[in-house]
Amino acid sequence: MIAAFTNRRRFSDLSAQEVLALAISSEEDDARIYRSFAQMLRADYPASATLFDGMAREEDGHRQRLIDLHRTRFGEVIPLIRREHVAGYYARQPVWLTQNLGLERIRSEAHAMEAAARSFYERAAAQATDAATRKLLGDLAAAEAAHERRANDLTVDALPADARAEEAKTEQRQFILTWVQPGLAGLMDGSVSTLAPIFATAFATQDTWTTFLVGLAASVGAGISMGFTEAAHDDGVLSGRGSPLKRGLASGVMTTVGGLGHALPYLIPDFWTATVTAMVAVFVELWTIAWIQNRYMQTPFLRAAFQVVLGGALVFAAGVFIGGG
Question: Nearest to residue 22, comparing CAs of 73, 85, 87?
């Protein structure tokens, strides 16, 4: 790995022909990335897919102009040189790392690609000592700046207000299906299901450390169980609920958080202080669940509060009764 980095050539050591060849390969790579973005988005975000198709065509046009310039100055044979061969050359995110990104993140990535290319060429042109190389790099910077402006035009043309609003609704729905629903289910399970064992242990032993250990074990165990269950029971292909890894992570983490909320107070040595603090934590947890249901699931707040608080109160009472008996 170290040898691979030390064998990269410095940009200042490249000839004008090699700089031009590097620009050609970079434009080709960018066109492929934009087409991959378009393919990812076509089913759910057709307007944005059109935007990236247009940007890919722009990159093709830049590449063809650069090839024509190379043919005029240096002939038909273009040296094989790519970004990874040059030290300090701006990098591109591998497309497979962006497949699960949201729509706005992909748009932001595309804008950053153009801005980085323009900035790189401008800095390189300013540092060049050869007049011909300086001119060439300056021309490339101007071309990237023009493409950046064209990208803004494509955004206006391809994404009118109604299309952007519709895509925003689709993205919001996907966010709810992938993150909010499994996270909410986990928070409810972690907050409610651990009430009985934690408070039963507390009132049976009145030992805060033992209660904390039971709460920690119950919370972590429930989190692992919920996370694996969520990830395994639906791969998201038919349901459209998104990545099972993301859903499992949301469910598992929120389940653990829900249980730890009223287990952590038992780190306080005094039993009654810890218990009262844990009760306050339970109250906050249950009302937070009701708020999330109202905010994201459109459940009327009073109905959500009644269901969650009543269910939590019954489980809490069961734990106190069993532990106190």
Answer: 85
